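Note to self: the last two entries modelled the partners one at a time, which told us nothing about the interface. This time every component goes in together.
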Amino acid sequence: MIYALVGLRGSIALLLKFAILGATDALLIWIISVALGKNSIILAVVLIAATAALNITYLVKGAVPLKFLIVGILFFSIFVVTPTGYTIIMSGFNYKTGNEIDKPSAIAGVLANGLSTDESGTAYDMFLGKTPSGQWAAILEDQVNHSVVFATTDGVQPIGESEITRNSDGIITAANGIKQLSQDEQATADSEITALRFPLGDNYFASPQGAEVALRMTQVMSYDKTSDTFTNSQTGEVFVDNGKGNFANKADLTQVLDPGWRSFSAFDNYKQLIMDKKVRDPFIGVFVWTIAFAFLSVGTTFAVGMLLALALQNQLRFRRFYRGFLILPYAIPSFMSILIWRGLFNKDYGAINHLLHTHIGWFDGPWTARAAVILVNLWLGFPYMYLISSGALQSIPSELEEAASIDGATGKQAFIAVKLPLLVQILGPLLISSFAYNFNNFNIIYLLTGGGPTDESTGAIAGATDILISYAYKTAFGSTFQNLGLSSAISMMMFFIVGTLSMYTLKKSRVLETL
Amino acid sequence: MSNTVGVRNLWRHVLALILVFFTAFPIYVVIMTSLDPTGGIASDSWLPVKFSFSNYTKLFTDPRIPYLSWMRNSLIIASATAVTSVMIGAASAFAFSRMRFKGRKIGLQALLLVQVFPSFLSLSAIYVIMERIYLVVPALGLGSIWGLYLIYIGGAMGINAWLLKGFLDTIPMELDESARIDGASVPQIYWLIFFPLASPVLAVTAVLSFIGTFNEFVLASLFLQDVDKRTVAVGLQQFVGGQYEQVWGPFAAGSIIASIPLVIIFLSMQRYIIGGLTAGAIKG
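The predicted structure of the combined assembly is written out below.
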């Protein structure tokens, strides 16, 4: 009976399988149809591929390993591999604030920015809608002289006051030949509306600013496809592609047009990290502190954890209490402990200043902030080190120590000469992965100090306690300037360092050989 | 004799007691702060000036602090992620451990390498994906806990497959061979032999995944913008982002309540979790 149910051979199991697969298919197909309806082609294609993969895997006989892996592979590819690949690719692009879009969008953006209103800044109140044939149309009422015209994308024609209806405030509420859009239609057509141009003659046109107002404008900046240049018809200036993701004035290359695009820059981001003094100096500072932080974190937590393990390895009064109580920091959610510590270090209200009867801004000075980070990390990390150390201590045969003491070594000597090297050998891989973990320990920096304090005189975003990962985060998602390209390059360097370390550890622990 | 043992043990007690005070310090302050309605301990005494549970009741009554929603969101998302990621991880680990197929070795190495990549730096790419999903199915995209759940599940295979494969490798091959001779199919071997055998390890993996998700902060803070859709981690963090002194009391109360389930889970499964740690976990 139970074999029939679980074995995926009996009829019940088969039914169950088809029910689950069918329900999943139904859900996916529904999402695909919605996606197609909303013109989200990429999503639809990805989901169609996923649906096909699922059904082929589970309906076709054979390929048993894939039946176990496919769900994981699908999620992993969509949410991990794709974004990671994207980040790696972006490290080769000049992708930063002002250069976020692709080139065609940037050209469209420059064209849109290259508009100029007429000299008197003529504006219209607009009653926007569609003609019965589905064409965009509007009644434009000059805000100054209140003349009214009927405008389509083909041009304007006069319209009599008798054909429009106004409310008591004089605002047009209806017009013959125009059906106003509903709120929903308006919201979805937002970008279409702002791109509308109602020609007014003399190279001028009415450009909607939202759904109710339009401005009389003319195109000053024009783009020439064959030479890939922009020309300003008023000043005669010519702008050329500067190869760095912007159109720049031919006469003065420092003058660039907004927006730019994310251009391929090969190794420029990496070069900046090494060559450009403005980027390199903070980077090196952060890099050095990251290494120091990771070493100090592992060193202090391991020292305290190991000492504790030694202290508690033999029968001792209250040992159970010590053990139980001292692993609490490991059990409490770490984000919370960090926030609590942040409160304790608060200058005006914190318990630490209260305890010491001082009034120190711990996070205001670079060295006190760094010390605070190490101290808090010690609190968070020593229980883990204690746990693994005491595990390792138990695995070392006591004969070794006895042999050493017979040879005349004191307890201390025996420990340092015999046990410690063995312990480090046993714990080596764990210490290295702990190093790698702290190397990327974003939470403690971000939640405790936010990377600060920063040097306000230089305006650099890197703070005294920033480690590479928090620096990369700030570089990519900072509040004023975002440089995703540079951030990706920093990520790649971290990836390289941590990846090498991990590979080394795995080689040592022989995991890869037994694959 | 007993005296010398006492003296020899003295340093052990001294060290342990120093660490007990070190460990207890923030915990004590938080508990006292949570019980002090004035919301601070910047007075001369180390005991609350007044004593009341008003900080706790505030959490559940103040409409600006949807603490219950935060807790519910965190518990839902952490449980769902734990269960799903263990299912995915176990199935993947089974395939990697018991079957030989093309691409197996490369697949395992790729899982590991991608895992080493500081993944949340691909945030902006994940953001774009979630935005696309949001436009089609709002319930699974940006701003919803189920969208966040999808992202967490994405990483599940990488983390858990390796962890669980290590354990499955220790189950002797003879076991499945004899089952196969008895006529069991692969799914039968998986569900009837491996699943029960691995259930303690699966439980530990689930607990670790639960704790990890509960603690996750970066993705959650980026994706959950609505105040009542936040997780506890994001809610409490943004809570202290403002006027520290004013909300320190409710924050302390909130963190105590949020910690309790995790501390209980951790302590009750302590033995298994520690076993998993010392078995040479890849991540520290």
